[in-house]
Amino acid sequence: MARSPVPAAEGWPGPELAGFLPKYGRMLAEDPTVAPWGVWLMLHEGKIVGDIGFTGHPDEAGRVEIGYSILPEYRGQGLTQEAVRAMVAFAFTHARITAVRADVEEENEPSHSVLAKAGFTRFGLTEGLVKWEIRRPA
Prior knowledge:
By secondary structure, the protein is of the alpha+beta class. 28% of the residues lie in helices and 30% in strands.
């Protein structure tokens, strides 16, 4: 597997992404069109400090789901909110996308704050996950 020419901050990737990357590599090999709907990197001061992305192609209603993770020492600086806004803007450059969604554990207040500040609204709660959504502007 090729390594990134961009150095990563210590501790990145976290265990969840590290476990997913081999699967993601296989997904890309089977279907290169998934690339924009997969993993992106968060860079700060020339280092990878987190990751953000969609969980795959849009569904039949034009919705995509977003997820993200940032190293603890880079939290609270607005970096994740900036990355979320950029990913939403990217998604809405595709005419087919009607909404971007996120599922967040009920107790994860920092993530709820990121999404609220990025313009998402809560629309449900299922099995301890708060459902968030931002719809394409009219």
